[in-house]
Amino acid sequence: MQHGPAVRRRKLGEELRALRDRTGLTSGEAARIAGWHQSKISRIETGRSGVKPEDIRLLLDVYAKVVSPEQRALLEALSASAAGPGPGGGEAGRGRQWWHDYRGLLPQEYRDFISLEASARAARTVELSVVPGLLQTPEYARAVTRAALGGLPEPKVDALVDVRLARQSVLRATPPLELSAVLDEAVLRRQIGGPGVMAAQLRHLVQVARLPQVRLQVLPFSVGGHLGLTGPFVIFSFPNIADLDVVVLDHLTSSLYLERKEDLEAYSAAFRTIQAHALPPQDSSDLISSLADDA
């Protein structure tokens, strides 16, 4: 299993090594032109080290003869999304973000997920059991956290709920994250937190579905078997450059990040199929409203 920024660092390193090979330069020669030690080139090319924006620009200047403007834009964007904690624990290549204050509480994989979510242009998600974190009420988030992490001290539960709510700021950012979510009907009927909490959560879903940047659909039980039964997933898309898209699969103790073109195409096709079988947005809101009234 790979962390998000770690995957990006490796991909960036592979691209930079390919460019160096095309120039005919050895790593030592490239480092000398850049004014670096050879070990720095090695760490970047193997993905063991992040790279600052000014460093990537300098290195691309060294490889200027074989770098197109489009490649340069891609690699600069890739270096920004690859930034994260380096081997020494410091932050590489980007300013301090709010989630860094929780580094003692949040696993690295969760911080990587939040980083991807915060920099994405759009997210497409299929959920089978719980309301997506970006759409949860505080009470529902608390109930989910207690159920998933039983026995956790209350102060830590409070902190994790605060993180969940802070993540929702991407829906109010400028520009906001464009969210397309398909929820299995089981998500709406599972009584998490009790009837009162669930009714409030359902009403919140109806409200947030009215936002222009949110498309919310329900996959009814009547559909029967569907592609989403293999498990929930999220597809993050990034501004201007499709090559940066990534699929995230959650497991009990880890997350898997998929960036191969064939994986992205497969999950994108699966999402389109699932979305086509789901109720239209208005019908979905009507169903959620009726369930809220009955809760």
TrEMBL record:
Superkingdom:
Bacteria
- MF GO annotations: DNA binding
Where in this chain does the record put each HTH cro/C1-type domain?
Answer: 16-72
Cross-referenced Pfam families, in alphabetical order? DUF5753, HTH_31
Give the species this sequence originates from.
Streptomyces roseus
Name of the protein in question: XRE family transcriptional regulator
